[in-house]
Design a protein that fits this description.
Blueprint: H1 12-24, E1 31-47, E2 50-68, E3 72-78, H2 83-98, H3 122-125, H4 129-140, E4 148-164, E5 169-184, E6 189-196, H5 204-217, E7 227-233, H6 235-249, H7 252-256, E8 277-279, E9 301-305, E10 308-309, H8 316-322, E11 344-346, H9 354-359, E12 363-377, E13 382-395, E14 398-402, E15 406-411, H10 412-416, E16 421-429, E17 437-452
Parallel strand pairs: 7-12
Antiparallel strand pairs: 1-2, 1-4, 2-3, 4-5, 5-6, 7-17, 8-9, 8-11, 9-10, 12-13, 13-14, 13-15, 15-17, 16-17
Helix pairs in contact: 1-2, 4-5
């Protein structure tokens, strides 16, 4: 019988600390850091407008970093809730540290510091298969005859605890709900998504209506010539561009090493003045922790303000090199990538709804989302990918029909250097790399499409 996690099943601060104590007690070490994470996620998957799978996965991971004199460090991880095995992992980490090279730039482990909290929704933590099935039924009820819905509804909880011999002891619990669907017909498909920290952030019927509307509108697509088009990007499409922008330029390590488009350019007006982008793991509409995997409190970092590049995010290592300190964006050790701006938010504008942006488009393309996006030229932020699940021709402010999907090859910086309108509405996009994003729709005067595709 399938069961679900409840708020009674979480480890809680005491349970997280109990596991950490088994490693912190390790003798003969200079410093010890213990990261304890637990996830209890339930997923209801559906296809052909029918539920075909209910899955509940639960995992506890304990990651121990031991640091010896000279900054020599070793890391060992174990998936267990057994303190004896955690102690064994700590001993293994110490053995690795003993043969590791010295690191004179090691910044030390996180000291004691207060961390904030994030809201936790009990209904989301304890959501049952029946709860999710009801939501799927409400979604499927919006799908007309001749079309089918597929997708997944995920609910659950995650816990994180970071404990160091330098004095930090931080714990947090978060809840998360995310519903995605693709509605397909004979010649078309439509996509919609919703999510947040609570099931109340998800309106299953609205998700079904949006996806079904796109699928119906997208029937019998025609081919249009590739080239430079004006576009209206819905929030999911905007999120792909912004998450890649974050990945390519707003991490402190790449910035310090000259590998980011932001290197040497902070203070430069690189985007349209209509755009402001921040990274904030605790803001409304995001699903992040109030501290990072090193135990540093998460800060709100202004990445772009009124089109001007303003900042990058740091972990303890890059913050020490930059002389700014960590902004609370560290990943678990060992980490060769550096810090990540995992929760970017684009400030809404005064453009109203997506339909309002379409109303102002003389001739262009309405793009629901992008698919199979990859980096071509990192420093120039050139990406290539395809449109998917709803691409439409707009003429005189009106959607006149569906078009076959197109491949794009476009610099994100160049595309976002000219923005005609930013919607007041925003949408949640699930994680592309490390976190999620909340973005508005955008109307851009120029976006480069290089070919049509054989998909859709």
């Amino acid at each position: 019988m399938t069961t679900s996690p409840t708020s009674d099943a979480v480890l809680g601060p005491r349970g997280l600390a109990r596991l950490a104590d088994a490693a912190l007690a390790l003798a003969g070490s200079d410093e010890v850091e213990v990261v304890v994470s637990r996830s209890a996620q339930a997923v209801t998957r559906f296809a052909h407008s029918q539920i075909h799978q209910n899955v509940w996965t639960e995992q506890v991971e304990v990651r121990v970093r031991v640091v010896l004199p000279g900054g020599r460090s070793g890391v060992a991880a174990v998936t267990t809730d057994d303190p004896a095995r955690v102690a064994a992992a700590a001993a293994a980490a110490r053995a690795i540290a003993a043969v590791a090279p010295e690191d004179p730039d090691f910044p030390g482990l996180a000291p004691a510091a207060p961390v904030g909290t994030v809201p936790v929704d009990e209904a989301t933590v304890g959501a049952s298969p029946a709860d999710r099935a009801g939501a799927v039924a409400a979604l499927v009820a919006q799908v007309p005859s001749g079309y089918e819905a597929a997708g997944a509804y995920e609910t659950g909880a995650a816990e994180l605890g970071v404990f160091t011999t330098a004095g930090q002891s931080a714990t947090a619990l978060l809840s998360r709900a995310a519903l995605t669907t693709v509605v397909t017909g004979a010649t078309s498909s439509g996509y919609a998504e919703a999510g947040g920290r609570a099931v109340a952030d998800v309106d299953p019927a609205a998700v079904g209506r949006r996806a079904a509307h796109k699928a119906r509108l997208g029937a019998d697509p025609v081919e249009v010539d590739p080239g430079t088009w004006a576009v209206v990007l819905e929030p999911a499409a905007t999120a792909t561009l912004v998450q890649f922008l974050s990945y390519l330029g707003f991490g402190g390590r790449a910035w310090l090493e000259g590998r980011a488009f932001t290197s040497g350019r902070l203070g430069e007006a690189a985007l349209d003045p209509a755009l402001t982008i921040v990274d904030d793991a605790t803001a409304p509409g995001t699903v992040g922790y109030p501290f990072d995997a090193e135990g540093t409190p998460a800060q709100r970092v202004e990445l772009v303000r009124d089109g001007v590049l303003r900042g990058v995010v740091h972990d303890r290592a890059t913050g020490a090199r930059a002389g700014t300190g960590s902004t609370g964006h560290g990943l678990p050790a060992p980490n060769t990538f550096g810090p990540v701006a995992a929760n970017p938010l684009v400030a809404p504008g005064d453009g109203g709804s997506v339909q309002d942006l379409v109303d102002g488009c003389e001739r262009g393309l309405l793009v629901t989302r992008f698919h199979y996006t990859n980096v071509v030229q990192p420093l120039e932020t050139v990406l290539t990918g395809m449109t998917r699940d709803g691409t439409f021709l707009v003429e005189d402010g009106r959607v006149v029909g569906a078009v076959r999907n197109l491949r794009f090859t476009q610099s994100v910086l160049a595309a976002l250097a000219r923005v005609e309108a930013v919607s007041a509405e925003t949408g949640y996009a699930s994680e592309l790399f490390f976190g999620g994003a909340r973005c508005p729709a955008l109307r851009l005067p120029a976006f480069a499409f290089t070919s049509t595709t054989t998909f859709g």
